[in-house]
Amino acid sequence: MTRPGAAVTVPAALFDAGLDAVLAEAARDTGGPAPRAVPAEVPDAGADGDGLERARAAAAAVRDPELPMLTLADLGVLRSVAYAGDGAVEVALTPTYSGCPALAEMRAETVRALHEAGFPEVRVVTVLDPPWSTDWISEAGRRALAEHHIAPPGPAPHPSDPVPLTLSPTRTAAPGVACPLCGAGRTEEISRFSATSCRALRRCLACREPFEHVKEI
């Protein structure tokens, strides 16, 4: 049993999984003495280039929990994969927006994928600057969205001045958003928010079918 007052180490990634998971992990840790910390040997990037490429490939293949037809690389939220100073593999993710509820799942799946690829020490950090933009979605990702009947976003707005607040009806015809089912260019917005905050619900004015649209951010 762990000595009274001894620290119990809980992996940082579990904090995003909820209090129950943290308590469960802590309970398991108290079943025996904590392992002795051994200083990690920092890998040389040049000598372990293949290892780093394996780490990048494993992180890039993780699927987005809300849009599973996209990988984190296709979605553009995977910023970098590198060795940290303590030898751990450090993965930087940028969420689609601040407070995105899928970020915890992204982090957990990234850690799991890298552990399965043979990297025992993994750290996922969040990078908010520059903020994510739909322009970061890859061409392959845009094709995958369309193949799954989700209209990909157009060019994101990049205003240099303050954005004015405009109050207007949201259910308007938008020729710039083509229907991913029949290809017609005239569609209307039914709801500003769909299954997630990043998507809107639209309807084609030709085939009358509803579909989702990834909003430009």
From TrEMBL:
Pfam families: FeS_assembly_P (PF01883), Zn_ribbon_PaaD (PF23451). Transmembrane segments: none annotated. Residues 170-215 form the PaaD zinc beta ribbon domain. It comes from the Bacteria. Residues 29-50 are annotated as: Disordered. Residues 56-127 form the MIP18 family-like domain. This is Phenylacetate-CoA oxygenase subunit PaaJ.
